[in-house]
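Below: protein 1.
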Amino acid sequence: MNKTMTPPNKLCVSGYKRFGRIFPLSALSVALAACGGGIGGANQDPDPVIQDIPIAYVKRPLLADEDNNLLSLDARAPLDFLPGGVLYLRSQASPSAPERDISSQAFQGAEYLNDEGQLLYDVRDVDVSSDGSKIVFAMRAPVIEDADEDEQPTWNIWEYDVASRSLERVIASDNVAEAGHDIGPHYLPDGRIVFASTRQRQSQAILLDEGKPQFEALNEDRRDPALALHVISPDTDEITQITFNQSSDLDPFVAQNGKIVFTRWDNMGGNNSMNLYQVNPDGTGLEYLYGRHSHDTGSSNEAVQFLKPVELEDGRIMVSLRPYQSSRYGGALVAIDVENFTEHDQPTYENRGLLTNGQSRLTPNDVSTDDDVQTLAGTFNSAYPMLDGTGRLLVSWSQCRLVDSDNDIVPCTKDRLEDSDYQAAAPLYGLWIYNAADGTQLPVVIPTEFTLYTDAVVLQNRTRPDFIPDGDGLDADLGDAGYGVVHIRSVYDIDGVDTTPAGVSAMADPVQTSADDRPARFLRVVKAVSMPDDDIIDVPGTAFGASAGQLMREILGYVPIEPDGSVKFAVPANVAFAVSIVDKSGKRSSPRHQNWLQVRPGETMECVGCHTANSELPHGRPGAQAPSINVGAATTGQPFPNTAPALFTDMGETMAETYARINGLRYLNPDIVFDDEWTDANITAKAESFSYAYADLAGSAPITSACASPKDAKCRVVINYETHIHPLWGKNRQVLDDDGTTVLADNTCNTCHGLTDAMTMVQVPAAQLDLGDGPSTDQADHFKSYRELLFNDAEQELIEGVLVDRQVPVLDNEGNPVFETNGDGDLILDDDGNPIPVTTTVAVNRSMTPQGAVASTRFFAPFQTGGSHEGWLDPVELKLISEWLDIGAQYYNNPFDVPQD
C-alpha cells in the first residue's frame, strides 16, 4: 500500500546541486531495540570468523533539503553533490570496533570550512585493491562560497594506503584533476584504475578534428555531462577513454575473467534504460551483457534498473534493483547468472530449453522496489561480498518502519502495512553481515537516526582478476590511421533466422538473384553528434526540428553490402555510431539501430547479423547468440557460384571477407556508388553501375572538407535543412524547347507549390503544400516550407483574392450539423434569426515524417515510376532527401551552425 512520510523536524543538509522528488522526513528518533522487525539475527553474538576483517564505509547525514524534506536521488544524475559524506575505516567488522575518519585529512585548513565552521565534502564509490591494502574512492571538496558553478571543485579519484595511513589524489596536477568529474573508480589487475569521467578525453580530441571546440558533451537528455569509462595509470597520469556511449557509463568493476562490467545508460531514440555491458580494459570487445528486456522485474512489474553491479564469489553479478528515482535510497538485491542468460527469462543459445530463470533475489522475502511501498523485508542500499568463502554479504540495510497515529515509530507488521493510520517512517540504515543462504544477519555498525551508511566494502585479500593485455590482436597500421573494422556475416540473419526468400546461397548467386532483386544494397553508418551545454552555445529545441528523438546526426558514409548480405569495412575509431540497411534508392529499409556501437583503433568487431528491437533472443554478445545463417564458402580456392573467378575463396569466408582479402578493405564513401564486382560476365550479364554523388548536386554539398581526401576518418556528411534541402524547392527545373528559350513546362517545385503563380497572382499551393521562401508564421526559427512538409496543417482556399483556412460544418454522430449555443444550451441566432453553424478547419496531413523516407510515402509517391512527378527530382536529390529523413529530419545537424541571438 502507498505510504507518505511524516512532517519534518530538525535535520537539514544543504549545498546539493539537483534532486528529484521530495518527501517529508520523519523527525522522531528511536533506539534500535525499540524498532524490532527485519530479516533476522539482530541479537546474535559477533561472528569470530569475520570479526578481524577490516571494513570501510561512507557515513553521511540522511539527505534532506533546507526545509527538512527527504530528498529523492536519481540514478541518471550521478554527479549530484551531497555534502556531509565521510569515509571511515574499522579494523574489525564488529559493532565494538572504533571507526576512524580517513578522508577528512584531505581538507586541512580553515578555507575548507563553511560559514558555520562545518567541513562538508562528499565521498562515494569505494573500492579495495585485491590484496586489501589500498582503498580507492571518489571525493568532491567542499563548496567554494560565492563562486560560480564552473569554479566549484570537481569529483576526483583518491587513494588511501591502509598501512601508511596516507591519502593522495590519484591525479596529482590540479589542472588535470579539475578537467572533469571522475567517479566510480575500480582497480585493474595491473594496478591501473578504471573510472567514469566527464573529461571524455578521446571524444574531445575528435571534436577538434571536426573543427569544433572541445567541450564536455551532454547526456542524450541534455541535462548533465555524459560520463564515459576511462583508464588511468597512477604512475604516469596517462588517461585513456575506452567507451564512447552518448549517455553515461557508470559503476565499472573488474570481473575475475579480467573484463570490465558496468552499467550503461542506453538513452538513444525511444530506448531509455540502464543495462549491463562488458568491455576489455583497452576498450575493445564492447558487448551487451544483460537487462534490455528485463526491466519489468520490479515489484508489481514496476520498471527497474540494474545498478551498482559487483561480482559474487560464485561468479554471478549482484545488482541493486531499483527505479531511476528513490527517496528510500535502496532497493532489492538480485543475483544475475550472466554466464548463462542475457535476460531473466532468456538463456544463451547453448542453454535454450534447459534453463528458465537467470535472475534471483538474494533475500528470502521480497524487497519492494516501489518507492512508495514498504515490505517486511526492509530495503538495501548497497552490498559487497565478504569474499571469505561463505557467500555472505556486507550490506547497508534499513528495516521496515512506520509512524503510528501518536507519531511514534513502530516496526512493520502485515496488518500495519495495510492500515492507513500508519505512515512510512524515514529509513534507518546500518551495516550488517548478511547470510543470503538462511536470511540471517549480524550487526556491524548499529544504525543511528538521521544517518545513512553507504558504499561499505571489505578489505579482504582475494584472488586477483585475470589480466587482459592492451592491444592484443589489433591492426597497428589501421589504428594509426584512426580506423577500426566492422564485419557483419549477413544482414539477412535476423536473430539466427535466414530472412531471404530462397536462402542466403540463392541470394548470393547472381544467376538466381540479380542485383536489383537484392533488398539490402548498402550499409549507412550514422554518427552521434555531441551536444554542448548552454555555456558553450545555445541550442534551442527548434534546432532539432519536428522531433528531438534523434538529436543531431552525421553520416560517416556508405559501403556496399555483398550479395550474401555480408559487409566488412573500415569505420572511424573512437566514435559512437549506428548502422542502417539501405535500398538501391538510398532509403533506409531497416528499423533504426537504437544503441551505440564503437571500435577502438585497429580493432575488428565481428557481428553475426541483425536483431529486431522487440526480440529478446540473445544478441550483441559473441558466444551467447545463435550461430550465423551464413556458413560462408564451401571450399578453398574456388569462386562463389557464378561469380568472378578472380574472387576465389577460403573455406568459411563470407563474400565480404573474400573481397577484403583480395582487393583490400572497403572504406566508407560519402556517396552511394555501385559497381557489379561479383557477377561472372561469362555466365550472365553484369548489373548496371550507378552512383549518387554529392558532386552532382547543383547546390551546396553536405560534406566536410575532409571528404575530399580518400580514406580520411574525419569525413562527415552534415545536412542542415536551410542549406541543403530547402534550395531544392527553388532550383530551376524548366523544360525548354530545342531553341533553348521556349518553356515547355516548369517543374520548379515552388512554382506550383507556392502562394503565387507565374503571373504573381495569389494561388492555393498545389496539394496544399507551400514550398516558398521565408520564415514560418508558426515558428520563426523554421522556414515555412519545413513546417509545411513536417507538420500537419489546415486546408486553405482562395476567397476574393485572399487565402483563408477552409471552414466546413461540424456534424454530430448522426451526421446532422451542430449549431452554436449559449451557456444555457439555447441556440445563438444571427441577425436574420438563423442558427449559426459550428465550423472547423480541414486537416492536411504532413507529407514527410522524421520516422524516415519509407514512411514518407505521401512525398515520394509522385516521384516514383509512373508518378505525376516522375523525373522532376533526380536520383541524387531524392537520395539526399531520403538520408536526411532517415536520420531524423533535423533542422540542423551541427549545433555550431545554429544562429545565435
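Below: protein 2.
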Amino acid sequence: MATTEAASVTPEILAEPPKEAEPHLILVDGSGYIFRAFHALPPMNRPDGTPVNAVFGFTNMLAQFLTKHASSHIAVVFDASRVTFRNAIYDQYKAHRPEAPPELAPQFGLIREATAAFNVACVEREGFEADDLIAAYARAFEGKGGQVTIVSSDKDLMQLVRPGVQLLDPIKQKPIREPEVLEKFGVSPDKVVDVQALAGDSTDNVPGVPGIGIKTAAALITEYGDLEGLLAAAPQIKQPKRREALIAHAELARISKRLVTLDAAAPLPHPVDELVARPPEPGRLAGFLREQGFRSLLHRMGLDGDAQPETAPVSRPRYNAPSPSLAPAAPEPEAAPAADAAPFGGYETITEAAALAPWIAAAREAGVMGLDTETDSLDALHAKLVGISIAVAPGRACYIPLGHGAPPGNGDMLQEAPAAPVQMSQAEAVAALKPLLEDPAVLKVLHNAKYDLEVLCRAENGGIAVAPVDDTMLISYSMEAGRHGHGMDELSALHLGHQPITYDTVTGTGRARIPFGQVALDKATAYAAEDADVTLRLWQLLKPRLRPDHALALYEQVERRMVAVLRDMELAGIKVDGAELARIGEDFSQRMVELEKQIHELAGRAFNIGSPKQLGEILFDEQKLPGGKRGKAGAWGTDAAVLEELATRGHALPRRVLDWRQLAKLKSTYVEGLAAQIDPRDRRVHTDFSMAVTSTGRLSSTEPNLQNIPIRTEEGARIRRAFVAEPGHVLLAADYSQIELRLLAHLADVPSLRDAFAKGEDIHSRTAADIFGLAPDKVDREARRRAKTINFGIIYGMSAFGLASRLGIPPAEARSIIDAYFSQYPGILEEMERLKSEAREKGYVLTPFGRKLWIDGIQAKEQARRGNAERAAINAPFQGGAAEIIKRAMVRMPRALQEAGLKARMLLQVHDELLFEVPEGEVEATAECVRTVMEGVAALRVPLKAEIGHGANWGEAH
C-alpha cells in the first residue's frame, strides 16, 4: 500500500518512456558530477559526522536530471580506480594529480548508493576509465539500432560524437554535436584524437608535441589528414621549429594518441539489457535520503510523508557557489555580453587611504555602487573581515585588503619567511568608508546582503550600518522563484554570459586550500573586485525588470525590507539552557538503553542496532520475516519504509528499532548538535535564515535548523523547553491559525468554509459535517480526524491512495470521501484545475499577492513528472501565500513595537509562527500589538487569526 501511494502521489522522479519510443541510452559521466557537486557546495555533514556535500549535490543533480530526461536505458558511469591500462603505456599518465580530498573520499561509496537508490545502473570496471566504458556502451547500443546521449561536456568524449551519439552539456543543457566539436577542436569528431595527440593535455599529463597547441594541431591535421600522415611528411615541413619538434617527438605523439583514444572494445561490466530505465522504489529512495538527512530533497520529491515546507540542509552561501542543479528549471536563452560591454578585470588594489579617496568620490558621484566583503568564515557572526571590494561602474572596481597575512612559504627552512603585504588597517578603512556606506544618497548594491551587513556592523570603530541597500539575489528571487538558482555565479552566467573566477581557483582545494587571507593580493583582487563588478552589472540588468515583471512591490515592500529584519533576528539569537539539553540527552540515552534491551530480547541475541547489515540478518535470515529485499551488494534493505511496513503487520522488533532510531536521531541532531551551536559569548544560538532557497518564498533555517524540530511529539516539546528567556523576560509565541486552509477558503471562495472561519467554528468539524452529512453535534473524533486529513491533504494534491494510507482505509472508500469533498466544495476543484491550467499556459502560478512561482516540468511529456508539477502548481499558492503573509507581518513588526514603546525582540520565524523575547511587564501589551499586526497584514475573504501564548520557555509558550 505504501509503495503504491508514494508512486502515485510523488515522484518527481524517472518515468518510463512510452513503449513505442525508439531505443535511447543515456550515459551519465558520474565522476564529472561528483567533483562538480563537491566544489559547488560548502562543507556539510550527516549527524554522525560523515561529510555529505558531494553526496547531496550529486543526488540533487541526478534527481533533477531524471525529471527532465526520459530514455529506454540509462546508466551512471564511474571511474573504478586511479590506475588503468594507460599507466602501462605511459607511467606518468595522470601522475601529478593529487589524491582526492579527505572530505571527499568517504563520499564515493555513498554516491554509488545514491545511484542505486534511484534504481539507475551503476557501471565501473577496474583497469578502465569511465570514458572507455562510455565508448564501449555507446558502440554496443548503437549497434542495436539505438540512439545514445552522453551527459558530459568533457572534451575527451567529443571523439565519440557521430550521427547516433551526441553529448549533452549538463550545465547549459545544450546538445554537443559535430558543429560544436568543430568549433572546439577545429576538426570533425573522428579527427579529435589526432589533434589531442599533438596538443597533449596538461590535466591528464598527456605529453603531446612541445610547442603545438590546439589551433596549430587542427591546421596540421586538416592539411595532412591524420597523425601518421603528418609524421610521415614531417621532414618536408617548412617551419624549422615545428619540423624538428615533430621529428624529435614522433613517438611521444603516437603514445599520446594511444592515451587519448577511448577503448570502445572495453569489456562491458553489465549487458546492455540490464541498463533498462526503471522508476525508483519510493521506499528505498526515501530511506536513503532520510539516512543522509536530505530533508529538502525528501519533501521536493514528495517522499517525506509529511507535507512540510522545504528546507535547505546546506551551509551558508557566502561564496556564491553555483547551484548544484544541472540547469535552470526553465532556462532562458543564454545571454551574451554586449559588444561594447566593459571587460572584466584590470581591477585596482587599494592599500592606502590616499588611493581610496578617489573611489569614494566616484561612488558619491555615481550615486550607486557595488559592494562585497571577503571574510575567513561562512558564519557572519564570527567571521573576521579580510577585505572590502567596491565597484563604481562596470569594469571599474577595486579591492581593499584589510586582513591579509603572509602568503604560505615554500617549506624551505633556509629561506626567509614571506612578509605580510602592505595594507590599510581595518580601523583606518572603516573610518574612511563609514560616511559613504551610511550615506542615504548612495545606494549600495550587494548579493546576499544580509551576510555582508552582519559582518560590517561588527567591524572596528563601532561598525558600519550600511544603508540603503539593494540585493541582486532577492531581485532575481522576487521575479523567478523556482525557475533557477540565485547564486551570483549562476546569475552571472545566465544574464551576463560571464563565468566569474571561482573561490577554489584562488584558494586551492582539499589539503592544499589556503585561507583567503593568505591569497596573494593580485589574485585576491581579481576575485574579490570581480564580485562587486558582477553584482553591479546584475543590478543594472535586473532592477529595471522588476516593474514590467510585476515584482517591484514584492521586492520593495517585502523582500528588501526582510534583510534588516533577519539581520537583527540573527544577531539577537535565542538563549538555550545547556543543562536542560544535557538532561534531555541523558533521558534519551536511558530510553535508548531500555529499547536496546527490548530489541535484543526480541531478537534473541545482542547485535549492533545501528548496523543495517546486522539488523537485516536478524530480521530476514534468522527471524524469517516476509518482504525482505536484498540490494545489489547483497545486504538486506532495512530503511524506514521497510521497517514501517513490517511494524504495520504487527512485528514488535521493527517498531522498537524505529523508536530507537528516532531517539538516536533527535539526540544527535537536536540535543548534541544544538549544544554544539551554543555561542559561548552569550549562551544563545544564532540560526541563519536563507532567503532565496525555496521555490515558494518561504524562509529556511540552517546552522542550526530550528524549523524541523518535531512539532507534535513529546520529544519535540521537550527540546523546545530547552529554549528559554533571559531573566526578567518571557518567550511569546504567535502562530497563524490554519493559514493555508484560510487561503484555500479565500482562493476557492467556498461559502461554507468562509462562514465557519468567520464564526470561529472548528473548521475540521464543520468539514466533517458537510461531507459526511452529519449534524454538527454528531461529529465524532473519527469523523473529525478524517476531515482534518483531507483538509490538509487536498492542498498538497493527495490522491485516493495517499488518503487511504493515512486513514488506514481501502482506496475505494478514500476515493468516495474525496468525491464527497469536491461535491460539497466544487469551488475547490475548480480552483485546482484553474491553477494547473495557469501553470501550463504561463509556466508559473501566482500567490494571492502576485508573486510568480515558476513550476518546473508542467509541460513534461512524462506523466509522472507532469503530475508532480501539477501538484506543485496546486500547492504553491498556499505555501507561497502563507510565506508572504508572515513576511509582511515581520517587516511591519519592528516599527509597530517601537511606536508602541515596547522592548520586545523578534527572535525566530518557524513556518507560520513568530517567537519574541518580551519583558515580563510588557506581555499583554506586546501580545496585543503582535496580534494587531499579524491579523491586519492582508485583507482576505476570511479573517486571519493569530494564536498567542507565552512562558518561561518555548515549550510553555505553546
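Residues 599-679 form a domain with the Taq DNA Polymerase; Chain T, domain 4 fold (CATH 1.20.1060.10).
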